[in-house]
Amino acid sequence: MTRRKLIAAGAAGALGIAGAGLAIWTKRKGLWLGRLQENGAAAASPRVFDFRVAAANGSAPIAIVTGASAAGLAKEALKSLGGMELFVKRGDRVLIKPNAGWDRRAELAANTNPDVIRTLCEMCFTAGASKVIVSDFSCNETHRCFDSSGIGAAARSAGAEVVFPREAYLKEIDFNGEAIRSWPVYSHFLEVDKFINVPIAKQHGLARVTLGMKNWFGVIGGLRNRLHQNINTSIADLATSIRPTLTVIDAYRILISNGPQGGRLADVKDARTLIASADPVAADSLATALFGLKPEELPYLLLAHSRGLGQIDRSAMSVRQITAAGA
């Protein structure tokens, strides 16, 4: 069942329990319903799944690469950061999380560029990864999304395994966040050694833009429209709990209007850019400029920064601006 069908099937039922703080499984409708933080309830310490590497912690550099080739951008970005070997070690199981939410062709910029995914998979194997998994919980039917976008074929051509989320993988996780108390998560996303988050940069009707931290919505199941009631804190809660090894923001083509799914070439801009860093907040913050925004204009970035998850002040960042060879 796709996440869109889950939302549609359970919207009416969710309205009655949205404020009740319930976490239940109902076989009648086939729904996992996560638990939101009750008003005034004191949250315990947040649950953290930390995939970072020690060598990349602290003041992580950020690579901003421009050029003609999507694959070339990914190669130059990782080279600038010290190589994939800094992040992936021999024997590691790696999860690469694209945005593969929509049944759209690559040129419509609703999903992560398949050439970026292929290149990152290849680099992980070269660094010694024993297994690379590519997965996302799509809004449209998952198989169609991976086929239409080219992500499925690109991942498999590099030797990666494409995993489609199943109900059997759902596991209730106690996030203990300010907005999200607990929520069903597809457990295969967390049962790896390294986690590379690879969103596409695009306009979003509710969050204004969707970048790295918003991409965590594709890890969870349940009635995620409930999280839209407090979307900024929900995004910050997920970012607090899931600390990626690396964030790679695909901005080769960006969706500048009618996001998050687009559907017209008129909505697409060729930005031919890629941003990569071990600091997910810094990566998202720099990507806001692609849309004429400042990071301070996005409440979830301010929240993430205030929680110590990363940097939003460019003057405090170590930014490496690169033009890829052959650009």
Could you name the key traits of this structure?
alpha/beta, three-stranded antiparallel beta sheet, 17 strands, 327 residues, Rossmann fold
Task: Explain what the structure shows.
The chain contains eight helices and 17 strands. The protein is an alpha/beta fold and 327 residues long. The protein has one domain: Rossmann fold (3-Layer(aba) Sandwich), CATH 3.40.50. Strands 5, 6, 7, 8, 11, 12, 13, 15, 16 and 17 form a ten-stranded mixed sheet that branches. It has a three-stranded antiparallel sheet with strand order 3-10-9, covered by helices on one side. Strand 9 and strand 10 form a beta hairpin. Helix 3 packs parallel to helix 5. The protein is globular and about 50 Å long. Residues 1-31 have low confidence and may be disordered.
Secondary structure category: alpha/beta
Shape category: globular
Query: Total helix count?
Result: 8
What is the CATH T-level topology? Rossmann fold
Average pLDDT for all residues: 88
Helical proportion, percent range: 25-40%
* CATH top level class name: Alpha Beta
Q: Which radius of gyration do the C-alpha atoms yield?
A: 18 Å
What is the correct CATH architecture?
3-Layer(aba) Sandwich
The figure for the number of domains is 1
**What share of residues are in beta strands?**
15-25%
Main sheet, how many strands, which sense, barrel? 10 strands, mixed
Order of helices and strands: HEEEEEHEHEHHEEEEEEHEEEHHE
Distance between the termini: 42 Å
pLDDT < 50 stretches: 1-31
Number of E-state strands? 17
